[in-house]
Amino acid sequence: MPENLFQSDSDSARIEINWAAPAAGHIFHSNFGPGLRQKANLTKDMLYSTFFIGGDFRRYSYSWKNQTIYLVTRGNWSSFTDQQVLDILKATIPAQMDFWKDRLDAPFSVSLLPTFEEWTDSSKSYSLGGSGLLNSFISFSSNNPGTELKMLRWLYNHELLHRWIGQTLVNEEEEKQYWFSEGFTDYYAYKLMLRNNQISLEDFLDVINKEVLAPHYQSPVRTLPNSELTQQKFWSDRQYNKLPYRRGLLYALLLDSQIKKKYHGKKSLDNLMKNLMAQAKKSGDFKFNHTVFQDQLDTYLGSAAITEFGRYILHGNLINFEESLPAGLLLETQKDIPAIIISPLANKKKLADLLGK
Ligand SMILES: [Zn+2]
Questions:
Q1: If you measure from the C-alpha of residue 162 to the centroid of ligand 1, how many angstroms do you get, rounded to a whole number?
Q2: Distance 27 CA to ligand 1 centre (A)
Q3: What are the structural domains, with CATH classification, of the chain?
Q4: What is the distance between the alpha carbons of residues 128 and 249, in angstroms, rounded to a whole number?
Q5: 160 Cα–ligand 1 center, Å
Q6: pLDDT of residue 324
Q7: b/e map of 59-69 (b: 16 or more CB within 10 Å)?
Q8: pLDDT in tens, 89-114
């Protein structure tokens, strides 16, 4: 990295990158698109948020609202087709752009790499992940039967959301705000999928119960105070790593339910999120921190919400959903592990609308 180009974080430099032509049958691609010659005005952070790949990739592109969207991938996928991955992008990008009332102002690129994990009778492992970058996101997935299309759909909803939560709303202290940048991102990934009929009400609750509530309540670090989540712990231990995703998602669900209840369905957590976004877009050096968030809490829910923020996020207490579940949902606790279930009397269509609203 040519770090010496930048005196400070706000410095930008005009950078020109030239690539040699790829070998026959190979392609080159970057977050700037397919061009071999790139000129861009970038800050250091933006330069760190670029990706460049070359080799035996397949490149797909389509046009959406006067911008080109690219997907580059390679290998023979066992669980899905390239077209199915493209279809996820075609559904997800417009849905999220519409939610944030945003638009693409440059080509957008997505890369998907297959990784090898053994999949035999005795050894079944898989993983998938990604990172939101400048006008792009990158992703990888095990190429074995463990990774299903629905996981990729979640991942793409999550990574694309980082364009706003993480990139526009930048954390002031990285892992100290992961409860927001990862937890709220995950909550919105599922909420928007529910709203856009990419998952069913049952899928939505299944995820909350099986992938969030159950593992969270069984985690040895479930009540770790937020201040003790260090970079070192986050990256070295799976339980610490998962903590802000689960805690943040549950807290987002709580706030969303509380705001909907207080405003009789006329407002939701969406309003608070969009307020933050407007604030970030208005000021050039916006950083997301706990003061900024508490101001929003005060606006929507008053001082009691700030006390709860201290209890549930800063101190790490387990969330009490008893009072705050939307009508139609019930809390059922078995062996100290709560699950959110649909009340037998509930109208499922109305409930799905309410949760996705
Ligand atoms: Zn993330």
A1: 7
A2: 28
A3: 1-163 (no CATH), 174-357 (1.10.390)
A4: 19
A5: 9
A6: 87
A7: eeeeeeeeeeb
A8: 999 999 999 999 999 999 999 999 99
